[in-house]
Amino acid sequence: xxxxxxxxxVDAETACLVQQPSRYDTLxxxxxxxxxxxxxxxxxxxRPSIRRVDARKRVFSVTWVLTGGGVYYERVESGxxxxxxxxxxxxxxxxxxxxxxxxxxxxxxxxxCFIDVDPSLAPVVIVALPELVNMPPVTPxxxxxxxxxxxxxxxxxxEKMETSRPLEYxxxxxxxxxxxxxxxxxxxxxxxxxxxxxxxxATEPVGVTLPDIAERCGVxxxxxxxxxxxxxxxxxxxxxxxxxxxxxxxxxxxxEQIMAVADHLAYSDVYSxxxxxxxxxxxxxxxxxxxxxx
Length: 294
Description:
single chain, alpha+beta, Arc Repressor Mutant, subunit A, eight-stranded antiparallel beta sheet, 11 helices, globular
């Protein structure tokens, strides 16, 4: 387990919450932190009166169930649907390459910690924590006061961070996931420039050139290209194209019009978008949408 109470500072409010977990009930709508559209985390409670089924979304999230039951994670594995019951002490990992849905039965109630990461940043987290590739969807994680303390402090610290400082919150995020999965801490700082580059390639407009990104990461373009290939196994240009197509898939699956998707992603026209989408996926945007619309 990473971290001890000596490594973090717990204020009076957080200490009270940890000692009395039921107090999270009254803070379900407020005890959260968000960085733009990129990262959300918090501690929430589902009320017994709610019955909800999430669409089969391709998301990246980690959920730690503290108390309660009546929630299930359903996904297709090897052609067959598998249902995982999420009870007290369960840790759920959802990845973009695992399409699944959450179902909360009427009468079910849970208190849980959650981390939601924008799918475009998922590859950055996977590179930093490659162990997650082979991690099963659901693993046991019994209640642990120190770990809950650490998570509460993580939520509070996120409120002070900004999207303009990606390395700061990516470092905090990977450290928190390491603690939840009892992984060895990674030296994110050592690979900081390339993690920052991956984030910029996934989120910055295509008008920002690769040399511009190299400069913003503090390295020459030649060094940037070489180190990026070593870290991610792809050229920066290829990485950017694949992230762009992933965003297109999300919008198409959500029912967006093809022309609107091309416009959102700054393609010169719908024909350029269709050509690149087909070259990467093997199907046209329309074909993909018909097969995958939520």
